[in-house]
Amino acid sequence: MIDGLKLTFSGAELRTLLDVRIQEHVQRADWWRREETRTEEDATEDAPLLPSHMCENEAQRHTWRSSVLAFIRDHVEADETYRLDAAALEFGELLPAMPGWLAQDEYEKQTAVGFGLERLTKTVDRLATTTSELLHGDVSAQPAKTVSGGDEIIEDRDEFVTTRVDTGGGPEVIAIQRK
User: Fold this and answer.
1) 58: part of which helix (H) or strand (E)?
2) Which of helix, strand or coil describes residue 137?
3) 33 contacts 108 by C-beta, under 8 angstroms
4) CA 39 from chain center: how many Å?
């Protein structure tokens, strides 16, 4: 009896599959190196220039990955039989490639929380900067104004308008808007 899902490969078959993945990584590394050398004249709407550091990093990542897979391939005995579990199949990139849309969907699911936190952090940072400017700016030169409905404008300068928003008995909300 076998515990868990394990796939059986001959050593020769495993080496062949690894060779295919190694060549894919070598080709991708070459593509990223060519991409890094493109100039403004090469840029099109469908193929804009990519940041050089991104191209360099991706080329290095694919070169490293091809080296890792070559190391594994070189230690596989062609005459032996190997039983691989899901983790080994994934690490060796032996499963068929995901369709692009599915890979993008998986990526978005994995990074959704991180992107949400990044957006939240940027919003809080802008709010803190704006609040600091309002608190430490020269507001004494201009009197506070009252608008219809009783909302008080704490500051009315060229840059920002700050108002207290009536939420109908809910928490106090102060809206800060750039003019």
Assistant:
1) helix 52-74
2) coil
3) no
4) 25
Residue 155: what pLDDT? Answer: 45
Return contacts of 149-153, CB within 8 angstroms, 24+ apart.
none
Instruction: Work out the burial of residue 62: count CB atoms within 10 Å of its CB; fewer than 13 is exposed, 13-18 middle, 19 or more buried.
Output: buried
Quote the CA–CA distance of 88 and 110 in Å, as a whole number.
21
Distance (Å) of CA 96 to CA 3, 10, 92, 128, 176: 23, 18, 11, 48, 52
Q: Tell me the per-residue pLDDT of 33-45, one tens digit each, with 9 for 90 and over.
A: 999 999 999 989 8
The distance of Cα 83 from the centroid of its chain, to the nearest Å, equals: 34
Q: Kindly state the DSSP code that residue 127 receives in the 8-state scheme.
A: H
Greatest C-alpha distance within the chain:
88
114-172 pLDDT tens trace? 777 777 788 888 887 877 777 776 544 444 555 555 555 554 445 666 776 666 666 66
Kindly report the backbone phi and psi dihedral angles of residue 148, in degrees, each rounded to the nearest multiple of 5, phi listed first: -60, 145
Does residue 43 contact residue 49 with C-beta atoms inside 8 Å? yes
The owner of tokens 């692009």 is 100
Contact 40, 6 (CB under 8 A): no
